[in-house]
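User: Continuing from earlier, I have the next pair ready.

Assistant: Great, send them over.

User: Here they are, in order.

Assistant: Folding the first of the pair now:
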Amino acid sequence: MASRRGTVPRLKLSTIIRRAPKMARNAVRDLRYGKPLGGTIRTKYAHLGAHDVGNADYGDLALLFADVPVGPDDVIVDVGCGKGRSINWFLDRYPHNRIVGIELDPEICAETAKRLRKHERVTIVCGDATALLPADGTVFYLFNPFDETVMRRFAQAMLDRGSPATIVYMNEKHASVFDDLRFTVAPIDPPGLSFRSVLVTVR
């Protein structure tokens, strides 16, 4: 049964047992940035094309970005940042980069901004990501935050910016929205990565 905050019903015991080691490792790393971030929150904005708020695994993020070129001057944008676990990882992995998180749900957005307020390199923005993409963003990360309709708006918004960028799309469900000669799409498939993912270059 969902809680008042919209938490998705609890996992089955067998699933918890299977995932327990990974969940414990993630929780320990979460604590470095304030509190455990595990669990999924059911979105209140499905009618706007948003998906439930979940969390990437730290190990998956390391695999995902292993060969992604990120320089110290790049601005990393977490599109649909949710509770901000990926931002925790970016802070560790890229100690000199500015990081922007964009989250549609104002309550989750406010909680994430409050938790990360001591980190001057981090800015959390609330609202529709397709309308709030920062002009100076260069590396955009998504963990399947939207349905296909919104992903198409996102792809068009990336083209409308008129500047080169890299998109790291984890757990891709709608890579077909990048079927345009101005995009180059390549799979990211290192051994052990939990989700099918792609690297998209915007020319």
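And the other member of the pair:
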Amino acid sequence: MAASLYNMLTGQFPRTFPRNVDPWKAVLETWPVPIRDRDSSVPRGLAKVIDLALDDRKGLHFKTAREFKKALEGVL
């Protein structure tokens, strides 16, 4: 959901996909680009929630869709 929201807001994917790199490898070996690096007009609170949802280095920040929804509602 966070990746879809990122794409809808920026028109880009959360990660950079180099031409000669397998997309799965790119997902597994790179970090998402912070959404405000792609579009600085995204409000900071919304950007924080989306970035947290996409950062899977320490496990999932939002364990359920309900948690993600509450976080989004808190910044909208």
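Worth noting for the second one:
The chain has one domain: 2-75. The helical segments are 2-10, 23-29, 35-38, 44-54, 65-75.
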